[in-house]
Please model this.
Amino acid sequence: MAAITRLAKRASSFSSLAIRCFSSTEINSHAPPYSPASFRLKPQVPPREDLKNKHVQWVFLGCPGVGKGTYASRLSNLLGAPHIATGDLVREELASSGPLSTQLSEIVNQGQLVSDEIIINLLSKRLVAGEAKGELGFILDGFPRTIKQAEILEGVTDIDLVINLKLREDVLLEKCLGRRICNQCGGNFNVASIDIKAENGSPGIIMAPLLPPANCMSKLITRSDDTEAVVKERLRIYNEMSQPVEEFYRGRGKLLEFNLPGGIPESWPKLLQALNLDDYDDKRSAAA
Model:
């Protein structure tokens, strides 16, 4: 895809571009200036017939633990677009023996956000690798997290739609503390069983645990950064930084806000309906 190719071709100079943007007061000067008071447009979800043959360029926003990876991965399989999660890119770098690994370890274990420059470097490397394999389109998960990142991204490619997943903070905390990883196969699971009754006009939320197969059960580990203190700090930082990014895309008519009504069985069909993909999923399932 032309947009991916443009982004990949800039990879060698992406770091210098980021540095110039961080030090300049004219970030992405050819784009419309950002203002929290920007005129708000409604998100334009492509018509159902257009999505079936389109290489989407979508972004998932949402607090840590909200399920960005789960839903982005499902849409990736449905549409054939690569799912690129910046969190996975960071973890892959952490597992390496590169010079960046120690620095990243300190940042993540303290619940701090990785700097824009590091994230952009990791993303550019991933896009170069994907472009070399002939990947078309993308579904970004966890990027952009800041206005600077959003402006840099908009300067090199065209984002079609930004899906902002929303969930109550008490549920988010419980979900994050329930996350587990199989130390053998690397699978992601969740042992939290959430059943919150409706009260005071707020709807109830039921989320069943996402348990592993029997052969993984004894091999589950907790991520080192999934402690209550670290999770709360991550949520605080995210909420502080997320509003300007949401306004950035809302003002451009690209933000689709989706309140998760429950777990995957309840949320997935409604998300597909919001994205004009409900009948597409039925046809794909019937053909499988």
In short: The chain has a mean pLDDT of 79. DSSP finds 13 helices and ten strands in the chain.
